[in-house]
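Here is an idea for our session: we take a single protein and study its fold together. Once you have written the record down, we can walk along the chain together.
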Amino acid sequence: MDTYSTKDPMRAALKKLIQHSNAPFTADDVLREFRTTKEKRSNRKLLKILEIISKHQPKSEEYLLEASKLLEKKDPFYCLLNFLNHYSETNIMQAIRKKDLSTSTPLLSKKMFETVTPDSVSEIKERVVLAATGGLTRVGQNTSAANMSGSHSPPPLALPACNKNHTDGVWDYRTIDNLHFQQNNISAIPISSQETLLLYDLIYCLTGMKGSYITSEECVSTGRGESTTVKFKISEQIHSSLRDIAKEILPLASYFTCIEQFIQKASFTECGQVLQALSEALNNLIRDYYLLLAQLESELNVGNLTVHKMLFYVRPTLNTMDVLAAVVSDISENELRGGQVLTLLYNKISALTGDEESQKFVIQLTQLASVPYMEILQLWVQKGVICDPQQEFLVEDNEVIRREELPEHYSADYWEKRYTIRRERIPCFLEKVSDIILRTGKYLNVIRQCGKKVTPPQIMNLQFSPTNQNHINVIQNAYQFASKNLLEVLLKENELMGHLMSVKRYLLLHQGDFITQFMDACEEELAKNVDKVLPMTLENLLGLTLRLSSAKHDPYKDDVHCELLTYDLVTQMSKIMNNEEEYWQSHDRLDLNGLECFAFRYEVKWPVSLVLNHIAISKYQMLFRQLFYCKHVERQLCKIWKENSIAKKFSPQAAELYRSAFTLRQRMMNAVQNLEYYMMIEVIEPNWHIFIQNMNKVENVDEVLSFHQDFLDSCLKNCMLTDTTLLNRSIFKLCNICLKFCEFIQVKILQFVIYTYYPFFINL
């Protein structure tokens, strides 16, 4: 019994159970049933056999339940091994590895993604590797060429010990040149014996090893991706009919090598998550491939395999591996990653129209490879967060420091520059919704930074499927949710329209009484040189004016502040129109008075600063400075008009001298008032009305930003603040001439009064 157990532990365990249960069959009968092909066997019958032989055994019900579950997922022979292992005194698994017993049934029709357990696959692969590293010895090593004529055993093989770390690499027919395969003259032996030897060589080649009679002829690199195409040479001693069939099988070995090389390269972290997911999917295929080889070897060992059967068995796998080898070669040669890989796989699906089996498999492969990409996408469209350590996602986060530490113009840059689309990373099936994807995450990110919890109405599982558009619907639903919530945050919780109305009151001079009172209060201070103006004084006068005018009812009046810029209006306009962002940096002040440098500043908090950002406020300031300067010129001309009462007392000769001057003053007054009327009534008001109408129909924040920018740009253009060469400079010069005229008239009238009524001052 001990000798029998050592030679064949499976039959020993079966014989022991059959004797105890008095079962009406032998160990060979049980093994034959578990080796039956998939189409002929019945799991219920197999369980019944196990139930009979385990009768009166401890824990039989528990082990039978375990076997029932294993039969649904694993190879039947593995299930039998596991069951017998419970009742054997030795470890049958290890014993089988040493004795090279077959553990699989033939594969006639196998789905490419059928579940194969890591345990069973590791056993199969370990046996294949052991065969290459000297762990297995072929039967009949001492058989001479003359004796092989009637034997079905494989040829002798002398395998030296290889590097023990070699199993982590890829068999590519070049790394095992140190293995010397013994080759005998077999041309004289029968074709049936040659066929057996050829079958063993084919199985070795399909695992990436050289055979005795099949060797790799050349390995050709197909491009910069270092993918290889292997050609094989079959010994002339093999009969030509066998060689022809073997040549149809051998391309499978080349495909296998190409895929294995790709899996090894894609296993590194820097290759990206998409390639790693694709590598894992391909690795599942290779497990099935190893299982197929083990099943073929099992059939060969029992004498049931021919080259015709082998070709029939591997034909489906051959077609599939051909498609996969082409795909991984394209990926390697073009150095694709991330969305580019998904685009290639998606296009391959369309290219395989007509080949239903291959197309179905590539669809499954694409779905598995897209899982990490779709997980990143789901986190982005549902939380506004990017988790993309390998830089594969179509949206790139350009944030380098915290928002609170950035300068005030950050709000504009945040929306336009922080999150950007990388077109080369977009899978083709997401190209049409890429802008929606970008906006969805941006909206959610803003909501999250406002301190609000982002909670989608339902948990959406974002998965890609080439056969339907469910992933598009999920993205669109997420976009509608984010857009609606951010608009509510801006328009309702943060009252964006109230802030915009407040900006119009103060920076577009809509609050008339406030502007008049403020100019009366600050006229003396603003007439000084800008270096002598005290900002604190202006702030105090502003606060006083706000509380004495009708603006005291404005809830946002405290957001208005005074600012003394370091440049005049023309310089500011030139900087903004030329997109020079340096204009807010400090420069040496020009020789300007306070009036020429004065502007209101409106400060808001996040997220209103997305709309009223520094660029937008600067455009408002340009309009304000133009209107404010014209209003100042109008006030100065009005003072000259008051001097008419003094001129009435002049003699007719003296009054005649001032008549033409007062006529010119009236023309200046009309020109300045018409300019103010045009800008405020014919430009700002109609555009504001259109802006309000558009704001009542907005559906997302991008529309709010677009409408607001259109309003400002239209006002600047029609107020002649975008033409830096002619109109604006002419208007600015015209206003300066009016001010110089007012100064001249006031001086001359004062001199005339002194000469006429107080001549004694002249003598003094």
About this structure: The two ends are 146 Å apart (CA to CA). The chain has 30 helices and six strands. The chain has four domains: 9-94, 186-218+226-335, 370-493, 496-758.
